[in-house]
Amino acid sequence: MTYRVIGIVAFLILAPFLGGLLSGIDRKISARMQGRIGPSIFQPFYDVQKLLSKQFIVVNYAQIFLVVSFLATIIVTGMMFFGGSDILLCFFLLSTGATFLIFAACITNSPYSNIGASRELFQMLCYEPAVLLACIGFYLATGSFNVSDIIQADLPAIIKTPGFFVAFVFILTIKLRKSPFDLSASHHPHQELVKGITTDMGARTLALYEIAEWYEHVFLMGFVGLFFIWKNPWSYLLAVVAVLATYFLEILIDNTSARVKWHTMFKLAWGVTILVAGVNLIILMVMA
Question: pLDDT (tens digit, 9 = 90+) per residue, 152-206?
Fold first, then answer.
């Protein structure tokens, strides 16, 4: 019980710092790949601080409530995950948070925000099958959906679930809003939708959205690391290496890929999921 409380408190306090640091490292590495020096790795913290210090302007009171709900849902999701709870329930709650974000974009008067919301909803359709299959893969490999049981397995889940891992990393590009799948929102206003779902957010509301993304990224990276953790204490070091390698891969893909159209994203996401995760699922069911 003690380690669960520690995990919850650690996520609640450390996640925004780790998430912001990951975002800063992302921007620094991206700049180097593009031949630029790039900002400080602490720039995301400065940006959020500046947004919070701006005049409070209400675009829509309902939007503020929905963005706060989005942030709260993401935080609860991460607390449940790092507290050892059911991963299936965690992702169901994460999808609920994404729904709050979609509603927050829908109720504004900006056409860019509305179209971004529609695209966000479509992106959920693309990545949810891979997420669900990844959870099922953990159950077939360890006999439990609970994080507390998975990390006490005799062997790391990745041994039995490589296909599920590949599928999840593939759709992780969608969840992290990186090219070629950054259809609904972009970290830079250099697309046909400007900033997509965040176009019509006020400064402080946008700051809350950024903080929510930091929490979400830490949760997603924690799920990646879960594939490599078992009862051996040294496995946590392996998980950290795997998480850093995966995040670097996502940065590389982001800087070497052009944005694709929605139907291409759908075909790729479902195609890879069915091919690698589906085959892995069949193998596990046959071996069971």
Answer: 999 999 999 999 999 999 999 999 988 888 887 766 555 656 667 887 788 888 8
Domain carrying residue 200: 2-287
Model pLDDT, residue 190: 57
Q: How many residues does the chain have?
A: 288
How does the average pLDDT of the chain come out, rounded?
A: 90
Domain count, the chain: 1
Please identify which residue in the block is written with the tokens 């069949």.
Answer: 282
